[in-house]
Amino acid sequence: MGATKTEHFTDKQNSIATLTKALGHPARIAIMEYLIKVDTCICGDIVNELPLAQPTISQHLKELKNAGLIKGNIEGNSICYCVDEKAIGKLQDYFTNIATKLNKKNNCC
Amino acid sequence: MGATKTEHFTDKQNSIATLTKALGHPARIAIMEYLIKVDTCICGDIVNELPLAQPTISQHLKELKNAGLIKGNIEGNSICYCVDEKAIGKLQDYFTNIATKLNKKNNCC
DNA sequence: AATGTTTATCGTAATATTGCAATATTAAAT
DNA sequence: ATTTAATATTGCAATATTACGATAAACATT
Description:
109 residues, mainly alpha, two-stranded antiparallel ribbon, globular
């Protein structure tokens, strides 16, 4: 026991949960915000930007990449990471849709 | 070691991470969607709706409540849970803001 | 008061995440 | 070819999450 029962939920539910789970850590939020802030994408300086060791940052980047939130291009011996707009669009749509539905009913609580 | 270093990040970053982390599980996404779908909020039937045991559902509800995503009113011996529109609004704003910023630059990857 | 219904908590096992030192890998620079 | 720089991987300890059976607490019904 202890393993998430993903098979019992819809693909859409799992897909949204994958994205939100990947964003469910302040370091990964900070990484996303940094990637959005900088104009250039040569992003090795995330390690300098955040108070975490290099292997830790690397691991967080890997999780964001696995979830499809960022993309990475090898560029010489450094790597150009940037945000995948499609994933953000998915989340934007999802929450906008929920917000719209909520506006249409008078919540009891 | 192993504990998240929340103190190194901004309140906003931690706040968004708290919300997304709480949504980072398909069961909790399913619970949210169910709460939005049903018109009445008498929500004990979440247990019947989802393929998880009652204590597990109760635990997930607690996490959603701790994160501020849902509210719960005691109503006799059952409880009326419903989605907190403010939290959803926060997420909608956050992702809309990011999406807008991304549209303004030509991503290199 | 006794019983049933609903939700929460406790205890515990299985699994996953977080963080980093040490090390490996890859490519650029000398 | 060596050295330097940038990332990734490995291995491990600490911590957190997931799931559920058993049980408790709170209220309703009889």
